[in-house]
Amino acid sequence: MKLGYKISLIVNLVLAMGLGVVAYMIVFPPNVEPHADGRSVVLLSADERNLVLGEMRGLLETVQVVIEAATEGDMETVSTASTAAGMVAAEGESAALLGKLPIEFMTLGMGAHKAFDALALTAQGTDDPLVVLGELGGLLNSCTNCHSGYRLGIEGEDKEE
Ligand code: HEC
């Protein structure tokens, strides 16, 4: 009886430690580490980081084009620019890169692309700039949500504080 109790205590302790490790791995997978600024650093190769940052600058350009076109009432340009930043833009991502991204990061990223597809559809069905700009405002939440939680780093480099 006493031995059985001891064994179950040990088994439970090992299980609890295992759970702790799993929980830590979910929050910080091997290529994700905490940063002093409170965000999580996603570690990529230098080329992958350049690619992602290039895509980011493309997204900001899309936002600029959409605002300008919407205020001019040019819904065709809103639609074309939004479609280009939609899911088609995510199709070229390599499996190696996607495999390094935390699930939440990936979900936010795909959410942003899908929101651009939705914006393209909206633009095809309205002449009202405020409808487009309102939806764009909501879409920008996916940018700011991700930026407040993540930054990018380069694999194998010393951690910068
Ligand atoms: C899934 C996460 C995610 C989403 C969604 C996202 N970003 Fe980013 N973005 C990042 C990360 C991470 C960085 C790098 C920040 C760092 O390392 O400090 C970044 C950087 C940028 C940069 C700087 C690029 C450079 O060359 O340094 C711009 C501009 C940018 N994002 C625009 C946007 C815009 C606009 C949107 C929405 C339409 C958006 N991002 C959505 C994660 C995201």
Which descriptors apply to this entry?
single chain, mainly alpha, Four Helix Bundle (Hemerythrin (Met), subunit A), 3-stranded mixed beta sheet, 7 helices, binds heme C
3D architecture notes:
The chain is mainly alpha-helical. The protein folds into two domains: 1-29; 31-154, Four Helix Bundle (Hemerythrin (Met), subunit A). Helix content is 71%, strand content 8%. Strands 1-2-3 form a three-stranded mixed β-sheet. A hairpin with a 5-residue loop joins strand 1 and strand 2. Helix 2 (46-71) runs antiparallel to helix 7, helix 3 (75-84) packs antiparallel against helix 6 (103-124) and helix 6 packs antiparallel against helix 7. Bound molecules: heme C (HEC). Heme C is lined by residues 53, 56-57, 59-60, 63, 105, 108-109, 112, 142-143, 146-147, 150-152. Heme C (HEC) is lined by residues 53, 56-57, 59-60, 63, 105, 108-109, 112, 142-143, 146-147, 150-152.
